[in-house]
Write a structure and sequence with these properties.
globular, single chain, 15% strand, alpha/beta
Length: 296
């Protein structure tokens, strides 16, 4: 049974049969399966709510212009376009559609993107999701790099920011000092590496204040966080956000670590994203719809 047919059955609540391998995304492959949320929470519980004064709208002081074509950015494509990237772009749109439905239905505004262990493709997923969601009409998206130990969003976008989320949390920088405008619907808050006190800073009142200001000014706040298993940072951060998705890599992530990570996220978990699945030859499901690509 094909991926899209399975997706439709999931979306309509019908029983789903044994799934066939998902298509491979060459350049940040994403084959999505947004699962229903778990019924009971486990792991770290959310801290008591902290009330802060109402924030004023914050506009980024600076604009960053993307320089050329980014190899792993498949949420939108510019020539030359290759067949695998066209398929990846369409899968990214499928994932965006299904996530957006869940987020609207459950009034989810802040979304955590994480993985069990490093090198599972979580940053590639987070950036592409941010660009895909920002393509929706009247949807303002903020992408936040909250992986303070090994930030990767700025490297992905080829940015060299002088400050970032770490500066806001530790040095009391203002929101618009650390926020960059990417396009009319998408802003990004990068981060610089901060190995010490990262968990404590993410657990502090400044992080809660940051999220409050972000929620006051954006429709979606997408947070790229550290892997769950190696460090405590994301276990501290997850209770502050509305929902989470877990990135896994086919034939790489141990099943027991996926289960352990899912248990840590508890009821926050909206679903899992399978990266790097083997892509079968193009079938009749795609023929005639994706069109012809331009070769290099």
């Amino acid at each position: 049974m094909g991926f899209f047919y399975q997706a439709i059955k999931r979306a309509t609540g019908q029983p789903v049969e044994e799934a066939t391998p998902e298509p491979r995304f060459e350049n940040a492959a994403v084959a999505a399966s947004v699962a229903t949320s778990r019924s009971s929470a486990t792991g770290v519980e959310a801290p008591p709510a902290v009330n802060f004064p109402a924030s004023t709208p914050a506009a980024p002081k600076q604009t960053f212009v993307l320089k050329g074509q980014l190899e792993k950015l498949v949420a939108f494509l510019t020539p030359p376009v290759l067949d695998p990237n066209i398929l990846a772009m369409e899968q990214c749109r499928v994932l965006r559609t299904r996530l957006w439905e869940v987020m609207r239905a459950r009034k989810i505004k802040t979304l955590l993107v994480t993985s069990a262990i490093p090198e599972e493709g979580k940053t590639v997923l987070a950036v592409n999701l941010a660009f895909a969601l920002a393509q929706l009409e009247n949807v303002r998206v903020l992408l936040v790099d909250a992986d303070l130990r090994k930030p990767s969003v700025s490297n992905f976008l080829k940015m060299t920011p002088p400050m970032g989320l770490n500066t806001y949390l530790r040095d009391d920088a203002s929101f618009h000092d650390v926020c960059w405008k990417i396009n009319s619907n998408l802003d990004v808050v990068p981060s610089l590496s901060l190995m010490e006190e990262s968990a404590e800073l993410l657990h502090g009142s400044r992080m809660q204040m940051f999220l409050q200001e972000a929620c006051a000014n954006y429709d979606v706040v997408l947070v790229d966080a550290a892997p769950l298993i190696p460090v405590a940072d994301t276990q501290v951060l997850a209770p502050l956000l509305d929902g989470a998705v877990l990135a896994c890599r086919a034939h790489s992530t141990p099943a027991e670590l996926v289960k352990q990570s899912a248990d840590m996220l508890g009821s926050k978990l909206l679903g899992t994203i399978l990266n790097g699945a083997k892509r079968p030859p193009q079938s009749r499901y795609y023929t005639g719809y994706l069109g012809k690509s331009t070769t290099r």
